[in-house]
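[agent] plan:
  1. take the single chain provided in the ticket
  2. run structure prediction with default settings
  3. attach structure tokens to the ticket
  4. add a short note for the reviewer (M.T.)
[agent] executing step 1
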Amino acid sequence: MSRLVDYFVIVGFDHEKERGGLSNGIILQRFPETNWDDTPFHDGIEWFCQPQGWALSTERTEPRFYVSVLTDVDANRHYCACLCFNETVAITPTKPADEDEESLESTRTVANITHHSIMYAPKCLVIVSRQDYIDTFRNCLGIIYTVWVENLGVPLETLVGNLVGCVLVPPPGGPQVRFSIGAGDRQALQPPAAPPMPVTHTSVHMLLRLLGIHNSVTLWCAVMSEHKVLLVSLAAARLSAVCRALAALMFPFRYAHVYIPLLPAGLAEVLATPTPFLIGVHSSLKEEVSELLDVIIADLDTGSLHIPPSVNIPRPEGKLLSSLQDSLALVLQPELRSADSAFAPPPPSASPPHMLDKEIRAVFMRTLAKLLQGYRHCLTIIRIHPSPVLTFHKAGFLGARGLSQCPFAERLLDSMFFNGLVAERGPPWRPTDIWDELVQNLPEQLRLEALNPELELQHIQELAMQLHYNENPNPQVFQQRILRPPEGAAARIHQPPLPPLSAARVQQVIDELSARNNNADKLQAIRMPAPRIIPPAAPPTGAVEHTQLLLTNSARRLEVLRACIAAIFECRYADARKSFPAVLRALRAPAARAALVRDLAQRLPTNKHILHHHQFDLIVRLLNCALQSATALDEHSIAAAILPLATAYCRKLCTGVIQYAYMCIQEHAVWTSQQFWEAAFYQDVQKDIKALYLPSPTHHQRVPSPREDEEYISLLKAQEPSALEIAAEQMRLWPTLPTDKQGELIASEESTLYSQAIHYANRMVYLLLPLEGAGRRADVRADDDRATNSISNSVAESDSADAESGFEEADPGEAGNNVIKMVSRFVDKVCTEGGVTAEHVRCLHQMVPGVVHMHLETLDAVARESRRLPPVHKPRIVSPALVCGESVAAPALRALLVADGREAPLLPAEGALFLTNYRIIFKGTPVDPYACEQSVVRAFPVCALTREKSVRTHAHLEHALHDGLQLRSATAQLIKVVLDEEVSSEQAEAFRKQVARLRHPQHPLLHFALAPRAAPPPSLAQPKHHTLKGFAKKTLLKTARRAGLKPKPSKRQKYVLPSADARSLTSPPLMSSLSADTLSLEELELGGSEGAEAPAARTLERVRERAYARDWARLGLAAAPFRLAHANAVYTLCRSYPAVVAVPEAISDESLRRAARGYRQNRLPVLTWRHPRTRALLARSAASHHKGVIGMLKASSHQTPAPAQSGTESTSSLEQERFLSTLVSLTPASRGELEDSSLSLDSLLLCCEEQHHTPLLTKAAGTLGVLGRNSGGKGGSSATGGRHFGRWGSLKDRRQASHLELYAPRQRLSTAEIDSASGEAGGVRRAALYVVTEKGAGAGWPAGVEPVPAEYPDARATKHAFKKLLRAAAPSAPPAPSAPHDEPPFYRLIEESGWLWQLRQIMQLSGAVLDLLDVQGSSVLISLEDGWDVCAQISSLAQICLDPYYRTLDGFRILVEKEWLALGHKFQQRLNLAATPQQGFTPTFLMFLDAVHQLQKQFPLAFEFNDYYLRFIAYHSVSCRFRTFLFDNEAQRAELGLAPDERRPDVGRLMVEAGVGAGAGGAGAEGGEEERGALGVFECAERLHQRSPIFFNLLYAPDLDNPVLRPVCSVSRLEVWEYYMSEELSHGAPYEPDLWPAEPEPKPARRLVTAGYDSVARCMPDAFGGLLERLRQLELELGHLPQKWRVRWDQLELPNTLELQRGGSVCAGAVRRATAAAHRRGTLEVLVRGRLAAAPAAPQHRWAPAAAAAPARCDHCQDLLWGPLETGVRCVDCGAACHERCADGFALACTKYKAPPQPDRDANLPAASSVATLQSSSQQYYEQFSSNVAENRTHEGHLYKRGALLKGWKQRWFVLDSIKHQLRYYDAMEDSHCKGFIDLAEVIAVSPAAAGPAPPKKCDDRSFFDLRTSRRTYNFCASDANAAQEWIEKLQACLQ
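[agent] step 2 finished; step 3 output follows
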């Protein structure tokens, strides 16, 4: 029995501290006045009596009742029931609160209260109790208030005394109590039936009604996961009820954090606590708490839930959460079950609120029971006496239930709630309640509900009835009598205040009642629920097997596992290794791992089992694999079961040295988890405790039986009682045991814990100290730097320590100290929980350091002996096949090739990593024993290496990290290997250094293609400038040469070409004699010297016979009006150009030299191609020097003294203009010689504008006039006579006209119409020469030349894009299986690399060049960067599209030799081939080949070569096997004797063809006469092509009627090249044909071809290749000599071409037209974007509404613009007018003033339209007031303006604006942006002035005038006195 009420308190308003109507509460009286012994009084109750603060009011309010909850230090709750009412007080005004120094502590803003003569002060009657009977408290306080208000004559002291001393409450389960407090009332109080069950009445139903299902469940999850929850409402009753509901929904958990249902406003700082809480506040504080960043706020009045972004609320796993929400919906909305019925039954009757409340609680109880199903099986008991101590095996429960990935379950198990549940409900001997029954019966109930879903609601209702019975166990209805005040009693005016109560009288009543209650014993016989054994219920279930691999625990898998273990112990190692892959895959399932551990435990005869070395290695691998899938928590107890095995299995290294298995399984995270060690320790302690109390087995010894299977053993174990059952029995017997027996049991359990602590301390030391003794686990979670210490180092350190001081005093090192700390923490934790004595704990702490020292000694000995073990038998290293001249350059490293991110078959493979002078090769055999007969080869050239780094990765099926290498190449290959244990770090480092030496040799002659040469001359190896004299000499000579200075003629004839009998111009001795080092400054002369001798005829012939010269001759560039100039014969004009260049005939060699100075690297424009029909020219050069600082410096360096001053204007800039003018004159389009000029890009522009309204094109057409309209070109058309067909015909129809002629979307416009449209669009004529240049190119181009600023990918962007492309094509690691969706997919990585977008830019630019040359007939000069990167790409692609010859094998070779080899490309820098690594690999040439591949994909019949040819060229462009791409230009090749027309006889190794047996693709010379150094990649390809059609496109059918290719450049049409993704592991890279097998092996009847391993093209050739091979075999069978494939191919009889012709298709024609239109549109886009980029940035319009009074036209759409009809806007700056809808897309730029009409345009304007002629004068009148029209320029002209102090005069263009009242000035007359302006409003006076200091030249003294403003005085100077006077008059007129 306990008191109902502990204290009765009267709290009132503290009038002494009142300031401004605010004050504090004060306790007026409390009863009893002395504290109870068991319940002390709580100070601060007055804070909770008025949660909103104590304040006076001017209006009387109704009494209010609410309950606050206080929590003491013991976490016991005390309920404060408050009845608050008002009393009338007379008050005089006092000093306001803001004037008082000692104001209230509260900082909350409270409205100031106006003082009246009569105010109302709050007063509270408070009941403080430990009991939760809220309704009884309300009734008692109401009775006391009614007695006082109604003056019923009952003393209030009697009521209070009876309330405090009379009413006693029985414990839960007791009978109903009926009582009265003495006011004629009758009350009843019913305790609940079960002690821990909460009482909610209807509060839970209120929670769901206020917040809804979703928000209520979310709030419940937040409370269960220990988040901060804040409730907000206007009603205190709601706050209390919802807090009570949330706490009740947690049952069987108890809320253990801060719980304040009603928080006073003065204690709002409590919300800043870092601990979780459940608090309710009044809505007046809502604004103050809204900024809390980690608090979940629920507004009960609006039903909203605010969750901060930083808060993540975990939820139950999907099925559990959905069932919870569905059940709540069915309970709250029972009509859902029959809502869709065709014949709906009557609606079910709704349950009353108190029953709905219990049904909702039942749903949440079922949810928690489902979540915790089987939790009692994971309870671990570690002490039984004197009191039970239990822990919970969290990891085992999560693993058994499959909740390892459920954050809600993990948070719940880690919470304080769950610890309280284990402590409260863990003991197996205690009374039970509804929860225990629910957990026990729920599995069977769920099984029945799965069969009949209707049982779910029935079970919920049954639980609800039990909960209802708990709150109302007495069904009898007792009629209570409660006094209540009448209505309006609170509003009485003359209500006297509550009188003070007599404390003595109250205390007397309490004493009398207490004495009477002590004598009464009627309630002492209450029976409490009897304790009983708690059944364990069903074990936890629900774990899901490994779903990704679809593994099942079938008997077959377990049988394979048992067979493998049996083979190991029976020494059948070969059988064991064969089954290892299957076993290791099966071990990913937890059941298989458990079976492995059980089998190994059964095969353990004693506590130590010594194995053979092979057995030991295999067992360790199995244990490592079993631990590899385990997490740090060890959910399936695999690591705990391995602990005894790891200390039992061992092998003997030598006498006295034994290596245990635990020394080889340390590299797992589970050993560093203290939670794992604690769980394993508790499990073993429980086993020992269970064995301690089990009855002795001597009386029932079992006779040995042959039946020793698992079923019999499990049956015996099932008969044994569980540990909890034993504990329950011992707890039951404990009170009956004698004291000595109890002490004996306590000592036995304590010694059990102590012995296990010693055992586990040793185990932890075993598993945490690394084998090397000092390094890899320095802080137990070791980093990689410490994890790489070698065994030898650690042994040496330990030996020295032993020699000096012995192990007793030796420092264990950082690793040992950290292990000591961790073990000590573990000992403290488990011994404290287990109740181990302090003496034993101290002994354990003293023991741990000694154990560590002794184990370090043991480990050092094991480490020494383990290195002396005989090597394990490993596969033999097989040498790889080498190409001719290739040799091994470093010892092979045994390694394991692991799988990377690509899907590669047969990996991992075991073999060796080889390094030769040409390649990096891995060759080995697959680890899979069923594929071990095949070989795996992955190789790439060493010169293609882009990145090499050391990595630490996992070996095959092993968890430990091993050292490895990751090598990435520019050929999209990745070699990732794990080095074998026998490979030392020194060997790996030596290998890496050798790779670096071969990757970057010291001289180009040391590359593989040229390596077998004599050593380079010593002079070449000297430093570049080893002396100061040499540095100065070289600098001055280079400057002089660039300035055009020439050497004086000397006797040695320097700079003079040799005679006809001498050697070639390009021989190395000649080039060395012409070097700058042989010149002297005295030999240089300023004037021009005599010309050099002309080259000999024989020399000229040899130069002209080069491939690029022959191509220029084929194009007509070697005959008039062009010529092949020899100005660069000795490479002095431009070192990166060839010896001869094609230039116009009118340009002399001297002009070429002067023009070259104006271009970067002296790369002047040279002609490279000529259109055969339009005669348009294609030229390329570097970008020209702009007229900036560099240009000025270069110009000044070329100036001559005064006598030659007149000739200085003939400098490089003039020569540039002359050169460009010559190109314009040579273009037929400039002379109007094209026949059909109407079909041009201009007509396409008009078509595009009409059909598509492209904004960019519209804007360009409206503002800039992108292209001229006067002439055009006809591209791709041919005569209508003969039609040409290629071999096998063509897929295109040749009976129709060309695709250019078919493109006729509308009637063709006449020339006059085009000119008219052109004039309206802008009036800019078409240029004869377009210069594709960089943005920001200077102005001042000659007539007929138009620059086209282009956007293109530079070298840096290409390098970064290719790096990302390689990472996408060959990722270094496979995607993680746990989160495959987190990593971006392959195509997203390709898109993010930007490679395809850069390809699109290059192809679009080349397409623009194509259209300009072919369609418009204009010449094009590509002048970008230094002229050797993007220029080569664009020029080459354009020629391939234009000229079918370059699409043949011979033509493509000539194109590459001309554009890339002869005209120069920095291969050494871009391919990173220099001796010093530079900027990395930049694949400029590779991007060109990729673009050609895109053309092949779109036009598969147009190319003679196939895709393999391009991949072959791409591979060997970086391989350095051939000399073709080793050097940057022809000059470098000539210096080394590698010019195209030279051969050196002293090259080394020969590349001799070994006949048929040497390989089908042998690249050697026939007969052994050809030297390898003189062989290029194209010569090799040509010989391979002669032998077999590996490079030939057998579908080649050139369309001679439509020779021009117009590809689609959109990214959607581009494909990722197979070159980046394909590989062949059978023989390595497929681009070394001489490594292919010579004769194919006999084909079996059935052959398996694996993509990625075999060459699909060679294994399954196409039909043509198969037929040719069949012909060769038949010839051999007949004894004939096989003929070459080309002969047979040419002998094929062609069918009749007429039969191959197809009928015209509308779709085909539409496709061709659409493709041509899209291609031209891309060209226009390039030109328009260039025009927009070249145009100065115009200011934006500032639109303002303006209605036109007279009819006008919109400047954008030309529609009517009139105020009554259409609303318009007008720019306030330039006066442009348009519709509102047209303002956003307005194309005309704001010019700040209306420019005067262009003369050319006015001359060509047609007659004005009728609308324009009918404009009234009113419109003209309004237009004159628009800002910045031409009339606003009152006066303009040049003036000199002097700057600030010490600054000179500068000429500016001044504009006087009378409308804006400004004097603006510009840098030049053409500028649209003003430099500044002077506001005329600030001008004070304008007057003539005297001449200033340092006046401008040729200025009159009377031309100066001053403009004085309020800020400063401006000094101006006009051209003469008249101009100055005119300016003065104009300015004065504006000032008036």
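[agent] step 4 note for reviewer: Residues 1586 and 1686 are 7 Å apart (CA to CA).
[agent] ticket updated
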